[in-house]
Amino acid sequence: MLNFDYSIPTKIFFGKGKIGVLPAEIKKYGSKILLVYGGGSIKRNGIYEDITKGLKDNSIDFWELSGVEPNPRITTVRKGIEICRKNNIDLVLAIGGGSSIDCAKVIAAGYYYEGDAWDIVKDARKISKVLPVASVLTLAATGSEMDIFGVITNMDTNEKIGVGHPDMIPRFSVLDPTYTFTVPRSQTAAGTADIMSHIMEAYFSSTKEAFLQDRMAEALLKTCINYGRKAMDEPENYEARANLMWASSLAINGLLSYGKHRNWVVHPMEHELSAYYDITHGVGLAILTPYWMKYILDDSTVDKFAEFGINVWNIDASKDKYDIANAAIDKTREYFNLLEIPSKLSEVGIKEDKLEEMARQSVRKGNIGSLKPIGYEGVLNIFKEAL
Amino acid sequence: MLNFDYSIPTKIFFGKGKIGVLPAEIKKYGSKILLVYGGGSIKRNGIYEDITKGLKDNSIDFWELSGVEPNPRITTVRKGIEICRKNNIDLVLAIGGGSSIDCAKVIAAGYYYEGDAWDIVKDARKISKVLPVASVLTLAATGSEMDIFGVITNMDTNEKIGVGHPDMIPRFSVLDPTYTFTVPRSQTAAGTADIMSHIMEAYFSSTKEAFLQDRMAEALLKTCINYGRKAMDEPENYEARANLMWASSLAINGLLSYGKHRNWVVHPMEHELSAYYDITHGVGLAILTPYWMKYILDDSTVDKFAEFGINVWNIDASKDKYDIANAAIDKTREYFNLLEIPSKLSEVGIKEDKLEEMARQSVRKGNIGSLKPIGYEGVLNIFKEAL
């Protein structure tokens, strides 16, 4: 196990009706807040009304930044910073999934930065101070409600970049599983795939002696497998929604990666797909994952894939380890198909002409992956196989 | 899943050599500290020297309270409070295992309480303010390094009582697995049994829909089973020590019990044993656990024990569920025996004459246990079976 410094200070208020804590928690930081959210869904399902009524009743002044994109754009971040500066905002409250929360985080960090906000996305060392951030989660997927990261897209430069800073972690997040009851079938599926991908990015590491972390990763994968499809078929199944929601937070808050070497691989590849094509993040991850697995499967990785097959997919441990590994990869693909996610990039509109450019961008900071790092040739090969 | 409020703010500095962070972390709170520790082991193995050299080099003044008992006594707590008051201590630093940390926590809480410290142990509502607490862990067992609880014994009244307050949680803890290399064989075993018991107290709950938490509990149990005996046989096996150390913290910091009904059962029984006989806590837990399991095994609990057997002990899922449950209980006993812990209370000096009194004390606040609560008759029956 590698050395690590653990710090997960976000308070979580979990469960039905927990929105009631919001006014008192906000008042610990001030009385002027910016609401950051996406489309009109929170108005249709009553969440917006729940929240703003509580704010009004408690004399909390709020401004609004709506229309945050599924892949939030730097132009939207800039708008939010302007509202915060003009109104001396005390706290940025995201309502939504990862898009809104990521956007809120970078607004909060940009507030204190004198230059253009894109500078801090490209170089987190330029962040010195961050406004308090909090979130009300309405989609189980990115885990942004309990981590330090945000991902912002610049459509001018076709860049989608992740930025992290310890002070960007939400001070608190409200997780009410009933707030995800209205999440559409396809988004429930994509969210589940995103959670599973976060877990696998931590699980398939070169660090071999983090037994505890690996068993916990398997625990979370089994949770996603048990409830992903169920939540699609029974959108108001509280047990399914609650387990997926809590899994989304624990998958990426550090618990699974502390003590392990970490170098993500499928995420950087997918970031290029959605930077160029604006496809759904979780769908891109689910399509790429099994091709990536097949590509890196060899004598140096087969034991890990066999472990994955035995412990996650209950494959008979007495079989040949390559058979177990290949069956595990097949089962991973089948599960994503069960979530009604296609198996090919061409099915989501991706064409051959930009594959080389996207592959180059994927590895612009160096090789990606921990268990078996890959470079340009590897990424391009995976893209072509997946097409 | 039940509603919950999650907050685990303790910072963890984990790994070999992490003691180097100590002076800078202490200085965030002040420059006058009280060291709280047990016997002379930290002087023999060099940990005391490591720490005090760092303090002196950084002009941090320290006072010392040594001789904290394995079951820390209220008389020792009172001594610590007196030292803190006389010297305007800024932070209480425990060096050791649960005994020292528990003692430090109650000293820190008692510092601001005007009456006698035993009052706050008996009624945590009397705690209003707590001095900052931190720890350097030298024994993987109680998880006190990352939770809000302390257990204090009053030998005058034969009471051993747990007290918890959110502000009693350590601000930070240093977990260097090499600091546990010199832990004797028997204490390594008892510590592992203690960790396993914490996990099982959370696992065997009446809440059935906390799938995620149950899979994580199994992950931690498998970690203990994989490394407990190994750490006894190879005391300087870093991988084993590291996995056990991190398991000790995660077992009881709330992660496994958030969202579940919680009412501990084997711990309150064991607390009476060690209040009356001063036996090793982990040994008492390990002896009692399988007898408690057998006692509550019936149609209402058999599914949970079968799940335990299949997921933790790899028992063939196609067998009859009572056979799986009984085999799982046997395997639990066999594992504790493998840790060289006896199977009978009489083997650790416990006599029949006080069983009734201890059983009455175990349930003085009401029935104990969550999966299937038990009262006086149940506890007495378990004690007699275990004798």
Automatic annotation (TrEMBL), chains A, B:
Keywords: Oxidoreductase. Pfam families: ADH_Fe_C, Fe-ADH. GO terms for cellular component: cytosol. One of its GO terms (molecular function) is methylglyoxal reductase (NADPH) (acetol producing) activity. Coiled coil: none annotated. InterPro entries: ADH_Fe/GldA, ADH_Fe_C, ADH_Fe_CS, BDH-like. This is Alcohol dehydrogenase (NADP(+)). The lineage of its organism: Bacteria, Bacillati, Bacillota, Clostridia, Eubacteriales.
